[in-house]
């Protein structure tokens, strides 16, 4: 049983990657966290009427919903610090190394159309002082690109990883990240696509015992983006922070669906996603779900989503969820806000001689600065600030043409 925008007690659903044994695991499907499976037939082609697809422009991604001939792969340029290895694994080795099977139709199609996965490994105990980079580039939208990437961070290692997407493509991919005991990982995903790109994907994160993980997801380009971001814990004591920012304009669609499975005691999570939206037909979707299982005693979690509507016609859908199966927790909460520019902030800036357009720009910059400063990788933070500035340069001329949404 679940409820939108609220906290409710729930029966135990199937855990990621688990198979039902007798009556030990509840197998009733949930629209918040459907059953994962490598079998493509377990993921029917969506019509758009399903709860998990009702916001998605299904027609725009229909080419990535069917399993045709094996597609192309995105070009990938690697930047690997000393000690880090990368290569490919195939067949059964891919499934064995993955955190979990696909959780929706597009990730299942990606897995069905690729018989290998790129494997990046950070050895145990290695402390990196420069980021690992995987720069993916699309070369056109005429075909379909599929990919699988698996990242393993060994016990007590320290790593910073940047995944960057750019160019034009129609792509479905699946990314699995394992973080070992006591390791520290900063994972930044930057979607800097061309305006015609379509990207649907699933990322699955497994947080080890006493590991500390921070992720940043920045969706700043493309026509349609739909990302499933899933996380669970391998043992107790894991800490997870997830931050995100997105711009949506020119009728674009950006959709982030998060699922944090508190399946271990004394685990922690904190989520903060922020979006800026403008132009008629633009839609930003954020759906967060935190599941606190009965064995997850002593956990703490909070999820937040904030949306800033820059002009009339833009729309934001924000749906936080909490599913709680135990009362023995440290804390759990969520919040969601959607609104226009803060009149008091604008008045304060304009009263000091700052022109209105520049004042609005400063408000948007301030809206995102808390996310950017949490990245923790100066080189990546500077790069992301440059992309944000480019986005502001592109959208700011339209602010004076329309009244802000009420």
Automatic annotation (TrEMBL):
Q: InterPro entries of this UniProt entry?
A: Fe-S_cluster_assembly_SufBD, SUF_FeS_clus_asmbl_SufBD_core, SUF_FeS_clus_asmbl_SufBD_sf, SUF_FeS_clus_asmbl_SufD
The identity of this protein, by name, is SUF system FeS cluster assembly, SufD
Give the family from UniProt.
Belongs to the iron-sulfur cluster assembly SufBD family.
State the SUPFAM superfamilies in the record. Stabilizer of iron transporter SufD
Biological-process GO terms, alphabetical: iron-sulfur cluster assembly
Ranges for domain SUF system FeS cluster assembly SufBD core: 141-367
């Amino acid at each position: 049983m679940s409820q939108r925008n609220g906290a409710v007690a729930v029966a135990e659903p199937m855990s990621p990657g688990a198979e039902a044994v007798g009556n030990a695991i509840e197998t009733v499907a949930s629209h918040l966290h459907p059953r994962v499976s490598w079998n493509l037939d377990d993921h029917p082609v969506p019509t758009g009427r399903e709860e998990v697809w009702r916001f998605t422009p299904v027609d725009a991604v229909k080419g990535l919903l069917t399993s045709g001939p094996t597609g192309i792969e995105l070009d990938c340029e690697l930047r690997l610090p000393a000690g880090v290895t990368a290569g490919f694994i195939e067949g059964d080795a891919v499934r064995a190394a993955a955190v979990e099977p696909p959780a929706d139709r597009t990730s299942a199609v990606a897995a069905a159309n690729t018989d290998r996965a790129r494997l990046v490994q950070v050895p145990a105990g290695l402390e990196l002082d420069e980021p690992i980079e995987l720069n993916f580039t699309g070369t056109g939208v005429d075909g379909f690109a599929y990919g699988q990437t698996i990242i393993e961070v060994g016990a007590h290692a320290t790593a910073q990883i940047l995944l960057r997407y750019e160019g034009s493509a129609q792509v479905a991919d699946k990314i699995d990240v394992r973080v070992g005991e006591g390791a520290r990982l900063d994972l930044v995903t930057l979607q800097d696509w061309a305006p015609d790109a379509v990207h649907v994907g699933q990322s699955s994160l497994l947080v080890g015992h006493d590991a500390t993980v921070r992720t940043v997801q920045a969706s700043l380009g493309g026509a349609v983006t739909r990302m499933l971001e899933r996380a669970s814990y391998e043992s107790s004591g894991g800490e997870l922070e997830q931050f995100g920012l997105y711009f949506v304009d020119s009728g674009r669609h950006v959709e982030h669906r998060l699922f944090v499975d508190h399946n271990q005691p004394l685990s922690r999570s904190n989520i903060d996603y922020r979006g800026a939206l403008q132009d008629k037909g633009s839609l930003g979707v954020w759906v967060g779900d935190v599941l606190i299982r009965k064995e997850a005693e002593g956990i703490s979690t909070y999820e937040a989503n904030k949306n800033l509507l820059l002009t009339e016609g833009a729309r934001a859908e924000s749906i936080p969820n909490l599913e709680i199966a135990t009362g023995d927790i440290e804390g759990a909460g969520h919040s969601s806000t959607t609104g226009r520019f803060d009149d008091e902030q604008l008045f304060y800036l304009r009263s000091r001689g700052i022109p209105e357009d520049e004042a609005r720009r400063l408000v948007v910059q301030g809206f995102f600065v808390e996310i950017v400063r949490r990245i923790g990788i100066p080189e990546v933070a500077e790069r992301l600030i440059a992309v944000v500035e480019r986005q502001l340069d592109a959208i700011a001329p339209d602010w004076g043409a329309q009244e802000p949404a009420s």
